Amino acid sequence: MDSSGERKAGRRQAPTGLGRACLWTACAAGLLHAGFSLYWALGGRWLLATVGQWAVQESTEAPLRTGLLLGAVAAFKAAAALIPTAAAYGRVPKPGLWRTLSWIGAVVLVLYGGANTLVSNAVLAGLIRPDTGYDRMATIGHAWLWDPLFLLWGGALLGYLVLSRAGRDNPRERAR
Fold first, then answer.
1. How many whole angstroms separate alpha carbon 86 and alpha carbon 83?
2. What is the pLDDT of residues 43-69, one digit of tens each?
3. What is the C-alpha separation between 92 and 32, in angstroms, rounded?
């Protein structure tokens, strides 16, 4: 901002208020997801069964391959959590590109997390009965932990993006 409180052309202010809370909530949810992926990549086993028995089996049968794959997943999730935050504070080049990608990512996270949370809970409630049965521990993990966390991540990021549209997060601009 210049001395009169106006935004300089092309520069975004740091997020404030509820927008900032949404942004940092999204970042924390994404980093929590990334942290577990990294933990499993390094051989950790706690809560791995909540992803699926296939993950437990893969980590036992091919630990190096599984570790490398989960390490890449952890890096991607961490980048997806940190880049929108860095862009919001003007710390990465081309913040408009990252903001556009953040919109796409937020919508995908909300749809993916929301749909999987609903379906997993419907399976647990007996409303949906898979013909081949299901992995109860993994379904609980997806219904109550991992997919709601994706939904929170996407919803919070979407909240930040909506609240930080030009003129939305600055009371002076809203009054104009």
1. 5
2. 999 999 999 998 999 999 999 999 999
3. 22
